[in-house]
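User: structure tokens for this one?
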Amino acid sequence: MFRDRAACDFVRVMTERVNISSGGDYETVFGYSRAVRVGEHIHVSGTTAREPARSGDAYEQAVAVLSIIEAALRDAGSSMVAVVRTVTYVTDIKDADLVARAHREAFGDVLPAATMVEVSALLDPKMKVEIEAYAIEK
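Assistant:
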């Protein structure tokens, strides 16, 4: 495809996979990365709050979750501005306004595409919200 070796090497480097860990317990137990960057695409795994935020309401949990996501994006060389989509899971749809408030505060004018769905449960009964994020960093 490329005749120039430097251009070929550049493409290979730009598409290398980089795994980012936040050091969370579940990452080791389940064998996954907090985020994975391949080229300009960054996928942040479903993220939940840690204690003490895990004992808080849905707003407090969502704020904590979005902070963890922001740190993962930073570790991947990106930021919340690059997020193009989020998927949010809540265990009680009545918490939608609380979670939406945290989402709005975290993203401001970025306005990523977003989905929120109610699920019957998350891994820990204290968990009220889990959020995934997808970013494209140019």
